[in-house]
Amino acid sequence: MGPSPYGPWQREAAISNLDPANLQQITRKVSALLDKARVSQARTFLVSSTKAIHHLLPSLVPPVDHEYTLSFFFHNIILDGENDLEVFSTIFPYFREVAQRNAGIIRGAVGQGEMNTSETKIIDNAIVGYCLGHAV
């Protein structure tokens, strides 16, 4: 694995390193951070908050978008400002599972190309590719 562009602390905070025994607690803490970030005036905050916090904690917080991420996991879900935390709490453990099961491949790809900036971004890229290839 190449050096992290964000410093050595990022390896420890990487989604693939999260202990399953602490996952629920970490999910709650990250969810609370996303809720407090509120970088947009929109009623829903999941998309804007994950994208903003992803830039601060790229190996831990996946960027979430409506078109691909939410369609991949839920197909036709509509965020309403009341379900943002529930939606994140549902998908975050899946990101962790993918990251952990494929840690060697994903870590080896970090820094390989300008779109592979972190573990979570690589998983996001895979979701986008899947959605495009399967018309999701």
Give short descriptive properties of this protein.
mainly alpha; single chain; 58% helix; 136 residues; 0% strand; 7 helices
Relative helix content: 55-70%
Q: What spatial form do the alpha-carbon principal axes imply?
A: globular
Number of domains: 1
Backbone structural class: mainly alpha
* Secondary-structure element series: HHHHHHH
Poorly predicted ranges:
4-11
Largest sheet: none
The total strand number stands at 0
Average pLDDT for all residues: 90
For the record, give the distance between the C-alpha atoms at the N and C termini, rounded to a whole number. 32 Å
CA gyration radius, whole angstroms? 14 Å
Number of helices: 7
The fraction of residues in strands falls at under 5%
Describe this structure in words.
With 136 residues, the chain is mainly α. It contains 7 helices and no strands. The termini are far apart.
Please write out the topology.
Blueprint: H1 9-12, H2 23-37, H3 46-56, H4 66-74, H5 84-101, H6 103-109, H7 119-133
What's the short version?
The chain is mainly alpha-helical. Helix content is 58%, strand content 0%. Helix 2 (23-37) packs across helix 3 (46-56), helix 2 crosses helix 5 (84-101) and helix 4 (66-74) crosses helix 7.
